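Re-run requested by the PI after the first attempt was lost when the workstation crashed. Everything re-entered from the original request form. Ligand of interest: magnesium ion.
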Amino acid sequence: FASASIGVALGFPGYARAEDVLRDADAAMYRAKDLGRARHAVFHPSMHTEAREQLQLESDLRRAIDRGELRLTYQPIVSLESGQITGCEALVVWDHPTRGLIPPGDFIPTAEETGLVVPLGRWALLEACKSCVVWNETLRGQVPISVSVNLSAIQIGTPQVLEDVRAALLLSGLPAWLLKLEVTESVVLQAGHGALLLNQLKALGVHLLLDDFGTGYSSLSYLHNFRFDTLKIDRSFVSQMEQGGRHVELVKTIVSLARALSLDVVAEGIENPAQLQLLQQLSVEAAQGYWFSRPLPAPAFRELLLSRKPFVLPLGLARTRA
Ligand code: C2E
Ligand code: MG
Ligand code: MG
């Protein structure tokens, strides 16, 4: 099936040249494509401004990595059996010289479109691994702390990522099993190359985690074919749990599915003790969310680790798995 995306520019006296009309129709066509293809969009002057801003963001991002404007923040992942921090997720933020802190949702899509996510990801992997080595040295004798790093579909589409992960482990000295790579279902669904690469990554000894579980086009056969270690329940499910009924049943089903496939379960986006209590009742192993802590800069996360204080959980500690 062939479909068409149509950009419309309405003729008005302000246009002096045919090329200008075509340029604007072109801008509108790209908007139609962005909106999901097989539709039309009518040109509006704001599209120019947005396109200019997008271009600016792109060129700024190109320089951001070299200028050291990117920072990793770390959000604790807490064991629901011990209340102790057992790991963290590395989340990138951009300390933009004029726009201030920009969250990843505002620039990762641009980084993906431009391919900049590859050097960005390389930097994030090494930085996260190095920090993790320091924490484990500081906490010698305590529970080992792991670090999770997000990989986008574009990264899994390039064989370079295998080298980047290997180099990050080698240069930092982090044992492979303390590095967890988070990928989403969309990555898994890209057959062929991505599939092979995931298996090669797995062969390095790192953990594979399926992020945002339940929000994409989950295919049970994919879950079965890839040797994931952990399944991360998306925040959208956690946030609806308190409504009870089928919302809790859904999470319960995801947990059973994970158990059947011998996968660990982490829940993300915990914002209150009621959610936590429900997750404890379902014997979910670990959780992360604002209720425990927002993502923290490396020094603050280290402080939190050094305090060695377990979080107080609604149902108490040392619950054994059902
Ligand atoms: P994600 O991997 O699913 O990360 C979890 C997101 O949920 C983070 O948003 C985190 O700050 C947020 N979050 C955690 N707990 C709570 C909570 O209790 N309530 C709410 N409302 N939100 C919570 P963030 O930092 O904005 O990151 C968004 C996405 O950007 C990430 O989603 C990930 O897909 C992507 N990302 C972040 N860092 C990187 C990176 O280094 N590389 C790549 N490729 N993607 C990244
Ligand atoms: Mg993630
Ligand atoms: Mg997620």
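Saved to the shared folder this time. The longest strand covers residues 85-96.
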